[in-house]
Amino acid sequence: MANRLPACALTVATVMRKELRQEFGKRATMVTADQGGHGVYPFGRNTCANEAVTAFLVTGQRPARDLACAAEPGE
Length: 75
What we know:
Layout: H1 10-24, E1 31-33, H2 47-59, E2 67-69
């Protein structure tokens, strides 16, 4: 995945997820979207990521494992 936002580097997020996994186990699930620019839920342009967040907020269900959402057309 491309690291498109230097201020929020994917490598930093990966390290954070690793630390959270030590504390929370499999409950620490990371959802990434290979989409450039800034996004604010629910107005982000990546349907896959939006649906994962909506599912968590509505039902409390997380993805079974880390979810890497592919870029979508229109970027």
